[in-house]
Structures are given as C-alpha cells and as structure tokens.
Amino acid sequence: MVRLDQYDNKSYDCGRGILAQSLWFFIGLPILRCQINPFSGLKSSLLRLFGATIGVGVIIKPGVRVKYPWKLSVGDHSWIGEDVWIDNLAQVTIGSHACLSQAAYLCTGNHDWKDPKFRLMISEIQIGEGAWVGAKSVLCPGVTMAKLSILTAGSVATGCIPGNEILAGNPAIFVRTRIIQSA
After folding, report:
1. How far apart are the first and last CA of the chain?
2. Which residues of 147-180 are buried (b: 16+ CB within 10 A; e: fewer)?
3. Domain-by-domain residue ranges, the chain?
4. How many angstroms separate the CA atoms of 15 and 146, rounded?
5. Measured between alpha carbons, how far is 98 from 101 in angstroms, rounded to an integer?
6. In terms of DSSP bridges, do strands 59-60 and 144-145 run parallel, antiparallel, or are they unpaired?
7. Considering Cα of 65, then 69, then 72, then 75, what sign does the dihedral take?
8. CATH 2.60.40.1930 fits 15-177, yes or no
C-alpha cells in the first residue's frame, strides 16, 4: 500500500534558503513567464541574477518556467521556446546552439513507485551542443542528449540519446542518423 500521508521530502535541498526561493517564486518567475515581456536579454539577466549560468545570445521566449535558476546552465546562442518548462530539482545543463522547442518539459524528479512512502528521486539532465528537443517532448530524469542529437516533437526520452541520432516516439527509439549538410 502507498502511504502518501507518510511522504517526507525534508532531505531534499534545493540549494538556496527560503528568502531566495520566495524572491524567485513571487518576483523572478512571474517576470520570466510574462507573456508581454519579449526581451530575451532581460530574461537572461534575471536568470543570472538568481544564479543561473546563461551564455551570450540566448533566446528565451515568453511563458518559459524554471523551477530553480541556480540549477540551470545554458550555453551560447541556445533557444528556449514558448512555454518550455525546466522542472529542475537537479542540475540542467544545456549546451551551446541547442534548441528547446515549444512546450518541451525537462523533468529532473520522479518518485520511487516501489517505496510505500513514494520517496523523491532526482537526476540531472544534460543537453549537448547543437541538440534539438522537439515541441511538446519530455526529457525524464537522468537523460543525456549528446552533441547534435534530436528528440522529435511529442516524444519521451527515458535514456541517453547518442550524438547525431534522431529519436522519436514514446518511449523514444532510434529513427535515423542526423547528417548536417556542409555550407
């Protein structure tokens, strides 16, 4: 039997105190998510102010949610599309020139379904240089997308995606190799 009345999350440390968390949730996050704020530079500066590492030329569209900016690193010239949710209980690292399309969901936390107390489990997500997360895709805890890999729209990644590979479906499986044409 599952005993959710005995669930205990006290061992989880988000990495900041209650004041920093409150400032983020009540001031920073609403500004980041604001649909009428189209300015990526302002959003990047806001995330940096709260501890994120954000490279140059990063594009952040309206509606983006980040649980804990101090657990986020984004490389240069990456794109984060409308309504992307970075649910980062653990570190999320996004390489340079990576693209997260609209409504992608990056989930670093889950629960142990074998544990009657439904214990929290967290694991980092890493997205490599030039990788592309398709619209409405889900990256589960512990996923690593290697350089130039693609997870197609609406797919669910539960494991690692090798470099230059395109995966699709739920669960995502290999479709083909990504070949970049020469300029």
Report:
1. 59
2. ebbbbbeebbbeeebeebbbbbeeebeeeeeeee
3. 15-177
4. 27
5. 10
6. unpaired
7. positive
8. no
44-69 residue pLDDT tens? 999 999 999 999 999 999 999 999 99
Which single residue is written with the structure tokens 């992307």? 84
Give the up-direction half-sphere exposure of residue 161: CA atoms within 13 A in the CB hemisphere.
Answer: 40
pLDDT tens digits for range 166-179: 999 999 999 999 99
Return the pLDDT at 122. Answer: 97
Give the E-state strand segments of 7-155 in sequence order. 53-54, 59-60, 65-66, 72-74, 79-80, 85-87, 92-94, 99-100, 105-107, 109-111, 120-122, 125-127, 132-133, 138-139, 144-145, 150-151
pLDDT at 64: 97
